[in-house]
């Protein structure tokens, strides 16, 4: 699929994987809607980075767990760029909780993680679908995690929320076919700000991995771009983890 002159909305687009994929898509001629919830300065910086290279981008604030904010965001995107061709559901949150500490996995933690990580992705997909259907084509990538495959991760509710993202991906692939393709990219450890203060732990993990390193945001961004371009795949969960789950 030729990506030139298409439009992509990237949730959590200001930092980490979101920023990397926003820039990678912009380099392919895609206009970018950089969504953010709290990281306003980072989102605006991402927009400036894209514009300085001759690309087109805007930053739009929206909490993806709030339906009205999601709908307003897509309205803004369409007013600015005419339509939305691609959606990268990247916005996610976590809480650091020992897996064995079931008491710390409170109702509030479950509700917060599922509101953003699962329902937020659904709300964005639902808002994007009419525009993609009208265009007779579109593609969505939900950013999952190997935590959703292994059951282990920063917290039990986080791992379960990512397993739900993988399930949501398959259900949406059925629901939105044939016009819209829906896949998930499931990264392992990625060198983002989530590791700040845990550099020694990341170094130890890197040494154990078959590829001897953790992934960079740009690695995941390249894969997301490739998945968006592939017109013959849908409903797939594609892992990029430097061999972590091997």
From TrEMBL:
State the CDD domains in the record.
Answer: SDR_c (cd05233)
SMART domains for the chain = PKS_KR
**All copies of domain Ketoreductase, residue ranges:** 6-198
Domain of life assignment: Bacteria
Q: Name one GO molecular function term.
A: oxidoreductase activity, acting on the CH-OH group of donors, NAD or NADP as acceptor
- Family the entry assigns: Belongs to the short-chain dehydrogenases/reductases (SDR) family.
Q: Does the record's keyword annotation contain Transcription?
A: no
Keyword vocabulary terms for this entry: Oxidoreductase
Q: Which GO BP terms, alphabetically? A: bile acid metabolic process; fatty acid elongation
Name of the protein this chain belongs to: 3-ketoacyl-ACP reductase
């Amino acid at each position: 699929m030729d990506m030139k002159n298409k439009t992509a909305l990237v949730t959590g687009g200001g930092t980490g994987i979101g920023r990397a994929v926003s820039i990678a898509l912009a380099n392919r001629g895609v206009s970018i809607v950089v969504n953010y919830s709290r990281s306003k300065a980072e989102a605006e910086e991402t927009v400036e980075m894209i514009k300085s290279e001759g690309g087109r981008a805007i930053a739009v604030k929206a909490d993806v767990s709030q339906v009205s904010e999601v709908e307003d965001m897509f309205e803004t995107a369409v007013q600015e760029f005419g339509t939305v061709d691609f959606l990268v559901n990247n916005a996610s949150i976590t809480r650091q909780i020992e897996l064995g500490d079931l008491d710390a996995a409170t109702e509030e933690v479950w509700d917060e993680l599922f509101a953003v990580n699962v329902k937020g992705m659904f709300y964005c997909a639902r808002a994007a679908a009419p525009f993609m259907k009208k265009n007779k084509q579109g593609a969505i990538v939900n950013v999952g995690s190997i935590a959703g495959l292994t059951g282990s991760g920063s917290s039990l509710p986080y791992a379960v929320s990512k397993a739900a993202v993988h399930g949501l991906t398959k259900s949406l692939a059925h629901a939105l076919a044939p016009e819209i393709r829906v896949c998930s990219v499931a990264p392992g450890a990625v060198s983002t700000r989530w590791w700040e203060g845990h550099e020694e732990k990341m170094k130890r993990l890197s040494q154990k991995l078959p590829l001897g390193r953790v992934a960079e945001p740009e690695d995941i961004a390249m894969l997301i771009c490739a998945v968006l371009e592939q017109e013959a795949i849908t409903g797939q969960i594609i892992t990029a983890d430097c061999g972590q789950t091997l």
